[in-house]
Amino acid sequence: MSHSILVPVSGGKDSQACLKLACEKVGSDNVIGLFCDTKFEHPDTYNHVKWMSENYKVQIDWVNNGSVIEKSLQFKRFPGGGSRHCTDRLKIQETKKYLKNKSEKEGGFEVWYGMRADESPERAKRYSQKIGDDLYEPHEIMPSSYPKYLGKNGVKFRLPILEWSRADVFEYLNGEEHPHYSKGFDRVGCFPCLAGGDKAKLRAFQYDDFGREQYKKVIWLGEQIGKSVWTSKKMKEDENQGCLICSI
């Protein structure tokens, strides 16, 4: 079945707002979601993606090409800095393949991405010349990620919530957002994002039994690649001394 709009979803608020908008604009039957599973998500995220599909009555396809653990072993490092192999190999590459296959079989369609200019100074600068209601060639939005042939296949990108604030998103979702937001988490995605700050990682590891199991996996991974998941000197010292085990 062909769809006029595709929405990549992570389980987070911004992509959810795009999915809800698209369904309201053209009807759920004309929309399809795409969830790239990193095999490092919290069970609440998997449940929320399923909830969105059921609640918005929209098909969400799941794709996977390995896990964060596997990619970190392959590259012998944790994600971070200028090397976010998890995002590149498990999300961008898989999305690119999906868009290529879909456009070659069905023709053109729009892809709605949940980028907001006020998320960070970097994004504000990157999208300063873009307008949320306009359509763009994929390589005009993400030049290092998407090739020009997608545009030739009829794939166009839109940033429908580019000018929205965080408050706008929450008001629009009206309590339908992922439950982790109400529990103090700023983002939804890998649990935790191994490229994130130490404070956020520690919070996730301490959060529940799943978080503690994730910590065990990360400690094992660090032993295999000879690196620490922590970036600060203090956290590395606490880990070496075994202090973190008690707190987590």
What does it look like?
Strands 3-2-1-4-6-5 form a 6-stranded mixed β-sheet, with helices on both faces. Helices cover 48% and strands 10% of the residues. It is built from 12 helices and 6 strands. It is an alpha/beta fold and 248 residues long.
Record the strand order, biggest sheet. 3-2-1-4-6-5
The proportion of residues forming helix, as a percent range, comes to 40-55%
Summed over residues and divided by their number, the pLDDT gives a mean of 93
- C-alpha Rg, in Å? 19 Å
Q: Characterize the biggest β-sheet.
A: 6 strands, mixed
| Count of individual helical segments | 12
Describe the global form: globular
Order of helices and strands: EHEHEHHEHEHHEHHHHH
Number of strands: 6
Low-confidence stretches: none
Strand content: 5-15%
N-C termini distance: 47 Å
Given the helix and strand composition, which structural class is it?
A: alpha/beta
Key structural traits:
6-stranded mixed beta sheet; 48% helix; alpha/beta; 6 strands; globular
Please describe the topology of this protein.
Elements: E1 5-9, H1 13-26, E2 31-36, H2 43-55, E3 59-63, H3 68-75, H4 85-106, E4 109-112, H5 121-126, E5 135-136, H6 138-141, H7 148-152, E6 155-158, H8 166-173, H9 198-207, H10 209-225, H11 233-240, H12 243-247
Question: Nutshell version of this structure?
Answer:
48% of the residues lie in helices and 10% in strands. With 248 residues, it is α/β, with parallel strands linked by helices.
